[in-house]
Design goal:
This protein is an alpha/beta fold. It is built from five helices and eleven strands.
Length: 186
Amino acid sequence: PARVASIQRNSLSLLCEHGSFETHPPRSAEPLSARFAVGDWLLIERAARCVLRRLEPYSCIERAAAGRKSQSQLIAANVDTLLIATSCNDDFNLSRLERYLALAYESRVAPLVVLTKADLVDESSRFIAAVNEIAPLVPVIALNALDHTSATALTPWLGAGQTVALVGSSGVGKSTLTNTLCMRAE
């Protein structure tokens, strides 16, 4: 087995127990991004480094592809938790949050709302309450994405064998949170 780490125009970057490598799946009329997603598990023939088949994913995040055709674009597969980042400021938008929650449910992925920039407001509790109003069963964590200690609140979702994806609008702190989590892991 190997896992898709990234998809280029004509090749896949894969991770397996023996390290990482690149492979070129057989050509098809469909682009690679329509046939594979980051997170896919593939059976490969190790010596030839060729894809034998894609294993059926237990979750699949997809969206409508750009263009006139009614096609979907695979985004990520086999994700356990969708971290939905939104910030405790003027960018906080319940309608947008509901769309991300719908994406999680349609994809069969457990959502977790991550309220970033909690350090910039006096009370993050009003943001937590607003999320609880529209999604009472969804866990909500307010944190400072720059602070390693604050980011440890995500530890239950970041264990061995867990796959998470991070979504959110531009400027909510996704890159900051990712960098903080990566530094914590080192």
